[in-house]
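Most newcomers find our protein records easier to grasp once they have seen one. There is nothing in a record beyond a sequence line and a structure line. Getting from the letters to the tokens is the skill we practise here. An example says more than a description, so a record of this kind follows:
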Amino acid sequence: MDRAHTCCFTGHRPEKLPWGADESDPRCAALKKRLGWELEEAYRLGYRHFICGMARGTDLYFCEAALALRDARPGVTVEAAIPCEEQAARWREAERQRYFDLVGRCDLETMVQHHYDRSCMLRRNRYMVDRSSRLLAVYDGMLGGTMYTLTYAMKQGVETIILDLEGNRV
């Protein structure tokens, strides 16, 4: 894939979202709508390949929005960047089903490494950034993997688009 036309994503898991796992919350619906709009905008700017880290929460919202974009626009591909084989092993059954359904619908599946270790999520994040020229992030200012990924992307000269939890550009 061509880095100049690739966009990746980072964002929070349900534990850091004010609505938790309640996707019927109006704030979650507004964020999902904004993600769709941002992907349409990326498409308009020439982005055609979208990489998702497939974590619970906003990663899966992004993946769903990217797959919807692929269904609506020509030339779009979606890649699942998976940190390790066990990524979804300890998730609740419904979350695992959603994960495997989404991975199965992606055009590409890249497993960064086979077995879990403390660094596999960071390796996955670097994999995505190193192959992208744009990073879309849902970020609330807190320490963690999202902040690490944003910082790494900025150091690499990757354009960053940051949305707060309300879906507004920061």
Notes: The longest strand covers residues 77-82. The chain is about 40% helix and 15% strand. The radius of gyration is 15 Å. The chain has a mean pLDDT of 96.
